[in-house]
Amino acid sequence: MKPLKLTLKNFGPYEDETIDFTQLEDASVFLISGKTGSGKTTIFDAITFALYGDSASDDRSPQSMRSDFADTKTPTEVTLSFEHQGRLYWINRSPKQELDKKRGSGTKVFESQGKLKIFEGEKQIDEITKLRDINIKLIDVLQINREQFVQIVLLPQGEFRRFLTASSADKEAVLRKIFRTQLYQKWRDALKEMLKKQTTKNRDVQNAIDTDLAKVVWLADAPDGIEKQNVNDQLAALTNQQKQANNALKTLKEQLQAVQQRYEEANQQLQTDDSMNQRINQLTAKRQEQIELQARQPEFDRLQKRIEQLSWAKELKPKYEQFQELQGEVTDNQQQLKAVVGEINNQIKTQADYVKKGDQLQAQKTEQDQRLNQKSVLESQRPAFKQAQELQKQLEQAQKKVSVLHQDLEKGQQQLTDLTEQDTQITTALSQMVAVTEQLNALDRTAQVLADAANQLKKLEQDQRANRQLAEALEKKQQALTELTKQVAQSQATYNDLRNTWLSNQIVNLVKQLKPGTPCPVCGSLTHPSPAHVADLPSVSDDEIKRAEAELQKGQNQLAAAKSRLEEQTSQSEKQAGQFHEVFAELVTKLVSSGVLTAAVDDLAVVKSQLETQIAKNDREQKAVRRQQSALKSQQEKQVHIKKTLAELTQIVTRLKEGYQTVEATRQRYQVQLADVKQQLPSDFNDLKALDQHLTELQTAIEAYDQAVADNHSRLTTVKSHLAAAHATEAGLKKQQQQVTAKLTTIQAEITAAVSQKLKTEDWRGLQRLLAEVNQLTDFQQKAAAYQDQLKNVAAEISTYEGIVGKHQLVDLDAEQAKVQQLVEERKRLQQQSDEQSRQTFLNDDLLKRIKKNNRAIAEQQETINQLQLLVETVSGSGDAKLGLERYVLQAQLREILKVANQHLKQLSSGRYAMLLHKEAGAYQKNTGLEIDVYDDNVGELRSVHTLSGGESFIAALSLALALGEVIQNESGGISIDTLFVDEGFGSLDQESLTMAMAALENIESNDRMIGIISHVTILQEQVPYQIQVQTQGQGKSRTKIVTP
């Protein structure tokens, strides 16, 4: 994939920028340079977005790449054309963004859009507009996804330099992301979790066994100290104990059953004898109850006689009650008859009054006729009065309209004069509007300049603080480096002393081994005239020498790494300081040229103070001018309203004049007509109101007379009707009274005859007393029947008990009760003993079952745990090799990367260096498996990568980065990537290292591949002829410039 042309619109700091990569075709290496934050890496983000619809970094979404300065009218889009395997591809993408609606007002959110065109030669062979299809097509063409593309095309040089000297654990974390070996890590964690759960489960089972054994109730014959014996011994003892306990429990239950049988037999005999004694006692009681009932017979004979009398009275009671009802009816009839006679007398008197009233109304008939005649005459004169009234009303209304229109006309003419004067005054004031607007625009521009300067100043203050903190940190690290240098020197001296002592000891050993005629192991002489004499020295073992050498090597590695880091950070500090002064000087120059500062100033605080003063002053002036502009705009709006009002008011005044003249003519016409009508009216009434009032009075009198005649006639008719009805009611009541009286006499004679026959007297008081007690008849009857029932029941029960008892006599139950109680106590004792042994035996039986089950489970699980433990140790690298499965896989990947990297390193270092995996295991797992050594052909030995200089570590890291890209390409199916980007990593190099790095880059075999270096280092701009320069334009915008030789 070779990019040809990239167009960015409102993407990051680029407003509308096109980068033509075809101008760099002749360069194997080109530079993307610019200030920090200018947008160098954004170019790679744009390429990634065009190809995959996402940015190169996971922490930046495509929506966030939309320019801050972009308004809602202009969209964000990226267009990329690239060549791949003989075909030309053109891709355009837009992220999700908020833009103006295409129709109507307001904004809406537009979803992501894209278009892909494919050309073969000059002919377009395909066009795709659906995002899903575009993504599938491009991945199919490139054969890699976004993550792989970023890893292959963008090489983070600084990260690979850190990767060189990182521990195996840190390398593992980096390689895991690249080669996606998280599966092995997850597998290891899953196995560990399985082992943990299995071990926990086994431990829980063992704890359950221990808990159950602690609950066992051991019998007295258990072995001594059984609780302290192992599980198997306790299990055997418990099994034997439970066998004996179950046999003893069985015997005890048989004894309990025998006692229960004897108890049931004795208790049955006791209950039988007790029941017969109760029957004998009940027979005696019933015989006594019969004697007492027979003694009450005379009392119930008297009660029977009373029942017979009450029954007779009950039969006569309906006739007696009918007699009482007829007596009441006679009394009611007499009262009604008296009331009807009184009503008849009242109606006769009322009838006479209404006849008299009718005669009086007939005498007033002449007056009523006169009123009717007068009313007819006056009603004929009423229209003339009504016409006069209407004319008077119309005249008054016309006068009011004349008055109102006259006032409105004067008011309108005055308003017209006032508005004309205001219009003239506002026109004069608005002549200042243009000057005020220009002044405000100038102040706004100044405010923007000041705001940008304030933001830059704030960033400079942050940079100044960061530089100060970095300088303090460097000073502390320099002190630490000095101390580390002393420690290394001390370690070197210690190692030299030990080595000298060890060599001296070797000499002593050789001297002791010298024999005449035997060759010297040093010079080969057969004679030894002057053997070396060495003073006694302390012995030094090989292990001590190795430990001292390892300690020295460790210190030297730490010292080299510390020096490298200090050099990098020192360079970074100097670079940041230079950038700070460069940006500060540029800001001061800009402020002086814009007039914010009167002269150049070197002090940041002074610039900040003067800038804040200018901002405050400009803000005050802006507010004042805006107030003036707002007032003028208000006057302008007011003038528009005044002119509109003037036009409307002129028309209104004209209409008022015309209306006034019309209404005045109408008023005069009504006035003449009213005078003519008034001459024709009678003199008795002043107006229509007086006439209508008199007519109302006449009508009231006429209606009152007619109503009085009608009412009197209606009332007289009603009285006559009531009087006839009352006479009819009187006759009916008299006839009814005669009938009731005759019936009453008949019933009275019948009752008297019955009383005389039953009670031998005609006096009704005996009957009345019996009637008062009739309600007790039922109780008396029930009482008598109950007595008879008791007699019969007692006789029947006596007969039944005599048949049951027969010849049986009372039995003494105390002896039998004592025997039963004795058996109960024995049964209770045996039952308690059985319950206690059963509970204890059942508890131990249950514990024995669980212990056996858990013991078998532990035995079955232990083999699984042992196998799982071995597997976890192997996968996790906990063994002696300290190499886990994931690191083993990554070791193979790294070995492949180093194989490819050494091809580049051989070229870049002229065959001097080669990188190899460290073969020996480290002291800890984190330092084992992925450690890298460098073979130096000049000295013919391996050494630590920590000992490489800045330039040497750069070419080693570059080789690693290039190799990684090639390995990933090969693993992705041998894809073709024709352009690579190396991101930073140059700023921390010193001059010598940078020269070596540039020489290495120039020696890279291009193979038709371009390498882009993303850096802000100044020396690179001087040495790399092909460049894409990113230049800031202010307000967050940047432009690009392609530089070629």
TrEMBL record:
Coiled coil: 188-276, 388-501, 618-708, 777-871
Domain Rad50/SbcC-type AAA, chain residue ranges per copy: 5-263
Region Disordered, annotated ranges: 554-574
GO MF annotation, one: exonuclease activity
InterPro entries in UniProt: P-loop_NTPase (IPR027417), Rad50/SbcC_AAA (IPR038729)
Gene3D superfamilies registered for this protein in UniProt: P-loop containing nucleotide triphosphate hydrolases
GO biological process, one term: double-strand break repair
Organism superkingdom: Bacteria
Keywords: Coiled coil, Exonuclease, Hydrolase, Nuclease
A family per Pfam: AAA_23
Family assignment from sequence similarity: Belongs to the SMC family. SbcC subfamily.
Quaternary structure note: Heterodimer of SbcC and SbcD.
Name of protein: Nuclease SbcCD subunit C
